[in-house]
Amino acid sequence: MNKNRASDFIEPLRLWPGILFSVVLISIRYLLPVLIPRATMVGVLGGILLSVGIFLWWFFFSRASKIDKWGAFLLIVVSLTISWFLLDKSIATANMGMMYILYSLPVLSIAFAAWAYVTRKMPVNTRRITMALTIMIAAGFWIFLRTDGMTGDVNHNLNWRWAKTSEENTLRQTAGESLTGTPGPDLAVSEAEWPGFRGKNRDGIVHGIKINSDWNANPPVELWRRPVGPGCSSFAILGNLIYTQEQLGEYETVSCYDLSNGKPVWRHKDKARFYDSHAGPGPRATPELANGRVYSMGATGILNAINALDGTLIWTRNPAEDSGIEIPEWGICGSPVVTGNAVIVSMAGMIAAFDSETGKPLWTGGKGGSSYTSPHLATICNVPQVLMINEPGVESIDPSTGKSLWTYAWPLRDRVLQPVWTGNNELLINEEYKNVRKIKISNDSSGWRTDEVWTSSEIRTLFNDFVIHKGYAYGFDGPSMACIDLTDGSRKWRGARYRGFQLLLADQDLILVLSEKGELALVSADPGRFTELSKIQVMKGKTWNHPAIKGNILVVRNSEEMAAYRL
Fold this sequence. Notes:
Layout: H1 2-10, H2 16-35, H3 40-61, H4 66-86, H5 89-97, H6 99-118, H7 124-140, E1 145-150, E2 156-160, H8 166-174, E3 205-206, E4 221-227, E5 236-238, E6 241-248, E7 251-258, E8 264-271, E9 275-276, E10 280-281, E11 288-290, E12 293-297, E13 303-307, E14 313-317, H9 319-323, E15 337-339, E16 342-347, E17 350-355, E18 361-365, E19 376-380, E20 383-390, E21 393-397, E22 404-409, E23 420-423, E24 426-431, E25 435-444, E26 447-456, E27 467-469, E28 472-477, E29 480-485, E30 491-497, E31 501-505, E32 510-514, E33 519-524, E34 532-537, E35 548-550, E36 553-557, E37 561-566
Parallel strand pairs: 3-31
Antiparallel strand pairs: 1-2, 4-37, 5-6, 6-7, 7-8, 9-10, 11-12, 12-13, 13-14, 15-16, 16-17, 17-18, 19-20, 20-21, 21-22, 23-24, 24-25, 25-26, 27-28, 28-29, 29-30, 31-32, 32-33, 33-34, 35-36, 36-37
Helix pairs in contact: 2-3, 2-6, 3-6, 4-7, 6-7
């Protein structure tokens, strides 16, 4: 009887379907996204389907004995379940809680098929022992890892669970660091050169600045580099001071640094910490400068007004708590904006205004829903207004009263991108991953009216905003830089893969691109063709922070370091 069972088990397996599935899985899941980054999600979903195919092969077409079929099934279920409860939080919560399944199943199925092939001529007991070990190792080694964040291509930066994080290294390197508390010599500036998120008009467009564009002969010069706590914040610049937000241990921190040397001037700390496994810990929004004050919005909803010179807290409140708003999955990301006597903030698709001097609530508005955009000031049909991109679409609000002026319905969850003013009372808005749309707004005796001008799928953006120049929009089609004609949305060209953030030097027809990989590229703003004039490496690691510029000094950062370059 035992001989019959052994004989049944060692009868040659039908291996070719499993090997074929494995080869196709490796090609679709791991090679295709490298060759065609836009196909990343095809690779991820294809990897899951092909993994299921390998398990179906084993169960129905491999000729394996029942004990080995069911034994493998039970071991896989038990190993995955136990490992799930032992995972690091970063992996357990990544990709909306699906990272472990999305990443472990392809590895497990390939390892299982490889085991079946390698042990095909081994004794029964040896095969069963090695099968158990293969399953437990392939399913369980994930408990020793963590993810330090995800790229736009859904690739995770995996590290050993016990390895020091960049934040821990920053805390160690800056421990005992003294604050100068002394503003630089250029502080007597009445207006901030770079008041906050994406510059003066939140459009990434710079006028009155010219740089040396021959980087072969005169490359950008690094002025200084220093560690910084994690966060997605960009910079605000006033005179010789730069302002950003970072996470330093348990404290969400608004920091002021000296632009000339990178030394810290002052820090304001709030005991708060937000974390998500995609962008990591830390605040998301960029501080806003107005009237000698820094207005900051933390990822957990803390709104501060701080003296820009010495870091003294003037007032603070938590509008998210005041409004009973649940913190969205990726935190509160909207950067404050100041107009008149109001500082305006966005929270999960809602919008609220507070007296900039006292913090007293003025009004609340917005249709709500999931949104990670910032309030955007605009003057349309000669009427000042603040625009909010939220789940229902676009809403225009009177900044003095909070009353809705007009709305444009285009529902989409989790919006990230800002509206783009193109002139002639027209806006570009985005359906992330899919389309960009141009709408026209008019206002007459019958009231406000919005009309679609065109919709284009020839540039599909995700979290990278446009810049507008001479009738054309420059942005990103997936990871690749692209240019479209504003008259009809037709694409003029698609260029290099940067998946980055742009600054348009309008006086020189040049675009500075800070890529996700930390590269700084100089690109010609020419609709006729894509031309990369030069490129250098300025950051280490994933970079999801917008650059900022004052004169010919560019400041860049990510969640590990920050630096200044003379261009």
